[in-house]
C-alpha cells in the first residue's frame, strides 16, 4: 500500500507558473514509468493518463489476471499520492469503507477510520476491485465520493480534492453481482477494456521475465511520484482553458451526439438491427462534456493546442460506449452493436 | 332400312295370375351388305301385362360375343301404354369379320327373362337354365337368331357402274378437301407483343444488375472536386472561397475512401490508393492546414501555409492521377 510522499514540500508554497510543454514531457515520463511495470498495454496507459489529467474516474473491465490491479498500482505509485483499495463483496456495507471497529489490547472498543478516510485528503487513488460484487448501497456512497469528492462521516465533511476512483469489473461471472446503475456508470469518465496483449514479444516477456512474478517488488521498483498529484487539479484547469475547441469542432461533436442519439436520421445502418428502435437513451450531456474534457487532454498529450476530430474519434468508444443504452432486445449483442454503431457514426458524420 | 318382325310367343302362364308377356316385336337391321367394321342395331320391344318385370341381371353384357362380333352396348327402358308395360331393349353390334367372299354368319338367339314379383321370387339359380322357364313366376321371351350376309371389301369394276371414270386412283377418289386456311394475324400480333415484353425484361434485367448501358461510370470524386474548385475560383471570391475549396476537397476524400478521412488517416489512405503516393507531401500539408483552418483560431496561418493556388493545384493533380488510374 502506498503512502503519501512525505519528503515533498507542501503544495501551497510550490505554486509556480505552469508550463504546459514541461508538463507534457512529465506526462510522457509518467506513461513511460508505468509502461515499465505494465507490458503491452500502451493504449490503456494512454487512456489512464488522459483520465488522470482530465481528473476523471475510470472503470476497468477485463479478464482475470490481465494486470488491471498492477496497472492501477503503478499509476498510483507514479502519481505519488496515497492509494487505497477495497474488494467488493456481497456483504460489504458503506460503513465498512468509512470506519471499522475492534477491541484493542486493553479490551476497549475502538473505532478507526476505514480505507476512504485513513489517508485524509491525501488520498489520490481509490481502487474499488470487483465493483459489481458490492451492493447498491455501496454504489451510492461511491457515487457521492466520485461526484463530489467528499463524504460525511463522524459528524464532519471529509474532502478528497485529489481523489481519482478506479474501479474494475470482471466480466466473466454474473452470479452474485449487482449491475452498476446507469447513474453510476455515467459518472465514470471512461470504461477501459483491458485485454491480454496479443503480440508475441509482450506475451513472452509477461510469462518468462522474472520481474513480473512479484508485483510488490515490481511496483516498488518504479519511480515514486513522477507527477505531483497535488498540482494536477490546477494543471487540468489550465489544460481545459488553453486547448482550443473551434466552432467547427463544436459543430462536429454536436452532429456526432445527434447521430448517436438518433442513428436513423444520420443514415446509420447496422446488420440485423432495426436502427429506429435501437437506442433507448443515454449519451448524457455530462458524458459529452467529459468527452470534450478528455479530448482536450488527448490533444495536449499529442502536442497540439487544438482539438481535432481524431482526438474525439480516438477516445470516443471508451468515453461514450458505456453511456449508450440500447433497447433490451439488443442488449445481449451490446458489445458488437455499439462498436459498429460508433464506427458507422464516424464513417458517416462529416468533419469539418 | 329396317324390317321388323312381330313374333308372338305363347308363354306358360300361372293359373289365376293376370301377368303375362303379350308380344315381342324385334326390329332387325338389313340382313346383307355388311362389311368389316359396320355397326348394326337391333331393337326388341316386349309388351307385357300385369306386373311383369324385366330381369335385367340376365341381359347380355357388352363385350366380345365371338371372335367376329362385339356387343357394343345394350340399353333398356320401360314405358306404360294403354295400361300395359312395354320394355324397349336396344342392342348395338359391331362386325369384325374380314370376309374374303360373301358369307353368312349367325347371331344366335338368346332369351330375355322376366319375373312376376307377386308370385314366388326368382331363386338364386341362373335364369338362363331352360328349366327355370317352367317354374312359376318366371317368364322367358326369346330373341331369335339373326343371319347376316357379310361382304368382302373388294375393288369394284368401274366399267359398268361409272364408264366415264378411268382406273386411275385419283380419278376414282374424290378430290382432296381444300385445307382450311389458318388465320395467322393474331399469332403474329402475339409474337410482336412477346418480343416487346422480352426486350423490356432484358433491359430491366440489365438495369437491375447494372450491366453495360446502366453500369455507372466509375465515380471520380477528385475530378468533380477539381472542376468545382476551378469554377469557384473563376466565379470570383465568394464568402469564403478557401473554406469552400477545403470542404469540397475533403468531401472528395471522403467519397473516395468511402468514409470520413481525417489527417491521421492520410498514410492509410495513401496505402490503399497507391496512385496518390507521389502526392503524399502535399496531401499532408493540405490536411495540416485544413486542421489549422478549422480547428484553431489561426486561419490566416493556414492560408499562408497552403494557399488556395496550392489547393487548386493539388485538386488538379489528384484529378489527373485519378483519371490516369481509371
Helix content of chain A: 40-55%
Give me the CATH architecture of the largest domain in chain A, please.
3-Layer(aba) Sandwich
Cross-sheet strand order for the largest sheet of chain A: 2-5-8-1-9
Largest sheet: spatial strand order of chain B: 1-2-3-7-6-5
Low-confidence stretches of chain B: 1-17, 120-134
Q: What's the average pLDDT of chain B?
A: 80
Q: Which structural class do you get from the secondary structure elements of chain A?
A: alpha/beta
Report the count of strand segments of chain B: 11
Distance between the termini of chain B: 97 Å
- Mean residue pLDDT of chain A: 83
Number of individual domains of chain B? 2
Major sheet size, sense and barrel closure of chain B: 6 strands, antiparallel
Shape of chain B: rod-shaped
The percentage of residues in β strands of chain B lies in 15-25%
- Counting DSSP H or I runs of 4 or more residues, the number of helices of chain A is 14
Pair with the most extensive interface?
Answer: A-B, 19 and 17 residues
CATH class of the largest domain in chain A, please? Alpha Beta
Task: Describe this protein's structure.
The complex is a heterodimer of chains A (352) and B (326). Chain A has helices at 20-37, 42-54, 68-79, 94-98, 136-148, 182-187, 200-208, 215-220, 232-242, 247-261, 285-301, 309-320, 328-331, 334-348; strands at 58-62, 82-87, 99-103, 109-113, 123-129, 150-153, 156-159, 164-170, 190-194, 279-282, 324-326. By secondary structure, chain A is an alpha/beta fold. Chain A folds into 2 domains: 22-230, P-loop containing nucleotide triphosphate hydrolases (Rossmann fold, 3-Layer(aba) Sandwich); 243-348, Magnesium chelatase subunit I, C-Terminal domain (Helicase, Ruva Protein, domain 3). In chain A, helix 11 (285-301) crosses helix 12. The longest helix of chain A is centred in the N-terminal third of the chain and has 18 residues, at 20-37. The termini of chain A are far apart. Chain B has 326 residues and is α+β, with helices and mostly antiparallel strands. In chain B, the strands form 3 sheets. A 6-stranded antiparallel beta sheet of chain B has the order 1-2-3-7-6-5, with no helix packed on it. In chain B, strands 4-9-10 form a 3-stranded antiparallel beta sheet, with no helix packed on it. A two-stranded antiparallel ribbon of chain B has the order 8-11. The model of chain B is unreliable at 1-17 and 120-134 (pLDDT under 50). The A-B interface holds A 244-246, 248-249, 305-310, 313, 346-352 and B 247, 250-251, 254, 258-260, 262-264, 290-292, 294-297.
Amino acid at each position: 500500500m502506498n503512502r503519501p510522499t512525505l519528503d515533498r514540500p507542501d503544495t501551497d508554497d510550490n505554486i509556480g507558473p505552469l508550463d504546459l510543454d514541461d508538463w507534457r514531457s512529465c506526462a510522457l515520463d509518467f506513461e513511460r514509468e508505468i509502461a515499465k511495470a505494465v507490458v503491452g498495454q500502451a493504449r490503456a496507459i494512454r487512456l489512464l493518463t488522459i483520465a488522470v489529467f482530465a481528473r476523471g474516474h475510470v472503470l476497468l473491465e477485463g479478464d482475470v489476471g490481465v494486470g488491471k490491479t498492477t496497472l492501477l498500482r503503478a499509476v498510483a505509485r507514479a502519481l505519488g499520492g496515497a492509494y487505497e483499495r477495497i474488494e467488493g463483496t456481497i456483504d460489504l456495507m458503506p460503513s465498512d469503507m468509512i470506519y471499522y471497529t475492534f477491541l484493542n489490547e486493553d479490551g476497549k472498543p475502538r473505532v478507526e477510520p476505514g480505507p476512504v478516510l485513513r489517508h485524509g485528503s491525501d488520498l489520490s487513488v481509490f481502487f474499488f476491485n470487483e465493483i459489481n460484487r458490492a451492493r447498491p448501497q455501496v454504489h451510492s456512497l461511491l457515487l457521492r465520493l466520485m461526484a463530489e469528492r467528499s463524504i460525511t462521516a463522524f459528524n464532519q465533511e471529509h474532502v478528497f480534492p485529489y481523489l481519482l476512483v478506479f474501479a474494475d469489473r470482471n466480466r466473466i461471472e454474473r452470479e452474485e453481482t449487482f449491475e452498476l446503475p446507469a447513474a453510476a456508470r455515467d459518472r465514470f469518465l471512461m470504461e477501459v477494456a483491458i485485454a491480454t496483449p496479443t503480440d508475441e514479444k509482450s506475451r513472452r516477456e509477461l510469462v518468462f521475465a522474472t520481474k513480473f512474478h512479484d508485483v510488490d517488488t515490481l511496483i516498488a521498483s518504479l519511480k515514486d511520484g513522477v507527477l505531483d498529484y497535488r498540482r494536477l487539479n490546477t494543471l487540468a484547469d489550465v489544460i481545459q482553458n488553453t486547448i482550443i475547441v473551434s466552432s467547427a469542432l463544436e459543430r462536429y461533436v454536436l452532429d456526432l451526439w445527434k447521430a448517436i442519439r438518433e442513428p436513423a436520421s444520420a443514415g446509420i445502418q447496422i446488420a440485423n438491427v432495426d436502427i429506429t428502435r435501437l437506442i433507448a437513451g443515454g449519451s448524457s450531456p455530462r458524458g459529452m462534456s467529459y468527452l470534450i474534457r478528455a479530448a482536450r487532454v488527448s490533444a495536449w498529450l499529442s502536442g497540439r493546442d487544438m482539438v481535432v476530430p481524431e482526438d474525439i474519434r480516438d477516445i470516443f468508444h471508451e468515453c461514450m460506449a458505456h453511456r449508450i443504452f440500447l433497447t433490451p432486445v439488443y442488449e445481449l449483442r451490446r458489445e458488437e452493436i455499439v462498436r459498429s454503431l460508433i464506427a458507422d457514426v464516424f464513417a458517416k458524420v462529416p468533419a469539418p | 332400312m329396317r324390317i321388323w318382325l312381330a313374333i308372338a310367343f305363347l308363354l306358360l302362364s300361372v293359373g289365376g295370375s293376370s301377368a303375362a308377356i303379350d308380344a315381342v316385336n324385334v326390329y332387325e337391321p338389313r340382313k346383307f351388305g355388311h362389311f368389316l367394321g359396320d355397326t348394326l342395331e337391333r331393337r326388341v320391344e316386349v309388351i307385357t301385362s300385369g306386373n311383369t318385370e324385366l330381369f335385367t341381371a340376365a341381359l347380355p353384357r357388352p363385350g366380345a360375343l365371338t371372335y367376329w362380333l362385339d356387343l357394343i352396348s345394350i340399353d333398356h327402358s320401360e314405358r306404360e301404354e294403354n295400361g300395359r308395360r312395354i320394355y324397349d331393349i336396344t342392342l348395338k353390334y359391331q362386325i369384325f369379320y374380314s370376309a374374303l367372299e360373301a358369307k353368312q354368319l349367325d347371331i344366335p338367339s338368346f332369351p330375355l327373362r322376366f319375373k312376376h314379383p307377386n308370385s314366388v321370387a326368382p331363386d338364386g339359380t341362373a335364369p338362363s337354365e331352360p328349366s327355370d322357364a317352367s317354374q312359376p313366376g318366371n317368364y322367358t321371351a326369346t330373341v331369335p337368331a339373326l343371319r347376316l350376309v357379310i361382304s368382302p371389301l373388294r375393288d369394284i369394276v368401274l366399267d359398268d357402274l361409272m364408264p366415264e371414270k378411268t382406273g386411275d386412283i385419283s380419278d376414282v377418289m374424290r378430290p382432296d378437301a381444300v385445307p382450311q386456311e389458318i388465320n395467322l394475324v393474331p399469332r403474329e400480333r402475339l409474337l410482336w407483343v412477346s418480343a416487346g415484353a422480352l426486350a423490356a425484361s432484358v433491359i430491366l434485367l440489365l438495369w437491375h444488375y447494372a450491366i453495360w448501358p446502366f453500369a455507372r461510370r466509375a465515380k471520380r470524386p477528385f475530378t468533380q472536386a477539381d472542376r468545382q474548385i476551378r469554377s469557384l475560383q473563376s466565379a470570383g471570391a465568394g464568402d469564403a472561397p478557401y473554406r469552400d475549396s477545403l470542404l469540397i476537397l475533403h468531401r472528395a476524400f471522403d467519397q473516395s475512401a468511402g468514409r470520413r478521412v481525417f489527417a491521421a488517416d492520410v498514410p492509410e489512405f495513401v496505402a490503399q490508393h497507391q496512385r496518390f503516393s507521389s502526392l503524399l507531401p502535399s496531401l499532408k500539408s493540405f490536411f495540416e492546414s485544413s486542421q489549422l483552418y478549422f480547428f484553431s483560431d489561426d486561419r490566416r496561418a493556414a492560408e499562408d501555409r497552403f494557399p488556395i493556388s496550392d489547393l487548386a493545384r493539388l485538386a488538379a493533380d489528384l484529378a489527373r492521377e485519378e483519371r490516369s488510374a481509371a
